[in-house]
């Protein structure tokens, strides 16, 4: 398995990464101009009881209109974020032979490195390498599989994953409040699965018009918290087009996954997104996925089946069943939801 990061400079796009014409992106400077921007929410204000309801309302509005937003003043220290980002970049920068022991497509591993994505049913390849990490709660079993190099990798990952997990729980409490639910509604089985992390590495691409960093998809999980750094590349579907999620220093990007849409009976929508490439700079994103326990049953929450949302729109299922359907649908948003939607 060849990694893109094993070759520091790419002078052309290999044929296997060239997408069919109908799947290729427009270059960023050819995208239609738009005044629409992804909402940015200052979480520090949520600590003020007089302003908390305003922040909650902003979050729910963003969830309904976009399914994605950015947060600032979120409580995760910048040195914690940068510490792990630097360690992750250091891993991808290691010689190929030092990464070789970690190369794998075995989903049972708590740490592995691979390339492209397993979800495209046509075998198209995408311009990225990635780490898949089981990261929270931190256990000895997890840590033993994490790499010893760079030297700071294990400690910085443990610190970062704990801080982001806490942020995710805060966000889930605010979303629950905004839906009129108990603040602990999403705790327990709904968000108690092993937290997973994807660290995506996109090297400079000689011709971004020919390929994508990541295919259009919705996340399988409940909630995603993303550190995208200072290099643009994430785009979110909105109003029939693609909005660039512009990097904001010190921010996290938060987006809703399929499970949130199903639990809220469609009131909040999962957001389709993709990654585009660039010619000038490495882009590294750290994606933390908050997920349910595999054995728990999923469906619209009884509290969310009401006059506002109508009858239940989705059937109940186990999360393990959803994972199989997601893979079979090659991560296509509509194909996945069609499988679980109740058709009347």
Report on this structure:
With 344 residues, the chain is α+β, with helices and mostly antiparallel strands. It has one domain (19-340): Sandwich (Jelly Rolls). It has 8 helices and 14 strands. The protein has an 8-stranded mixed beta sheet with strand order 1-2-10-7-12-5-4-3. It is globular, with a radius of gyration of 20 Å. The relative contact order is 0.16. This is Fe2OG dioxygenase domain-containing protein. Residues 193-292 form the Fe2OG dioxygenase domain. Its cofactor is Fe cation. One of its GO terms (molecular function) is oxidoreductase activity.
Q: What is the CATH fold-level name? A: Jelly Rolls
User: What is the total domain count?
Assistant: 1
Radius of gyration: 20 Å
Number of helices in the DSSP assignment: 8
β-strand amount? 15-25%
CATH superfamily: B-lactam Antibiotic, Isopenicillin N Synthase, Chain
Strand order of the largest sheet: 1-2-10-7-12-5-4-3
Descriptive labels:
metal-binding; 344 residues; eight-stranded mixed sheet; 8 helices; 19% strand; alpha+beta; four-stranded antiparallel sheet; Jelly Rolls; Oxoglu/Fe-dep_dioxygenase_dom
Helix-strand layout with pairing:
Elements (H helix, E strand, L loop, with lengths): L39 E3 L6 H17 L2 E5 L5 H15 L3 H4 L11 E5 L13 E8 L3 H6 L7 H26 L16 E8 L11 E4 L5 E5 L6 E5 L2 E4 L7 E5 L1 H6 L9 E3 L7 E8 L6 E2 L18 E2 H10 L4 H8 L4
Helix pairs in contact: 1-5, 2-5
Nutshell version of this structure?
InterPro entries: DIOX_N (IPR026992), IPNS-like_FE2OG_OXY (IPR044861), IPNS-like_sf (IPR027443), Oxoglu/Fe-dep_dioxygenase_dom (IPR005123), Plant_2OG-oxidoreductases (IPR050295). With 344 residues, the protein is α+β, with helices and mostly antiparallel strands.
